[in-house]
Design a protein that fits this description.
Elements lengths: L2 H5 L11 H6 L4 H28 L8 H19 L3 H10 L11 H4 L1
Helix pairs in contact: 3-4, 3-5
Amino acid sequence: MDIKSKVQHVDPIAKARNVEAIAAKTGNIYESLAIVSKRAKQLNMELKEELSRKLREFEETYETIEEVQENKEQIEISKFYERIPNPAVIALDEFMSDKLSYKYAEDDSKKA
């Protein structure tokens, strides 16, 4: 799934959230925030890779009129990525909408 479809419904404005509702998802606010944080890091890496891949198309330089057109396209791509909500906002939205799956690592100390 590309980033455009992921963020179409997400409000880009960071706003106050109900901490109790976030904590209720896992029973612990710290666990909930750790899950959201890890997902935000994943999204950040995906965004960075996607933007780099799109901008690599413009690496070849030509001294023609086409270069001006390419620069306009580069600017439009950059503007789109600037308007995307912060990865933490996207991750929290996914978490609260139950669109995010997670699992706990097995605790080796409990097996002994």
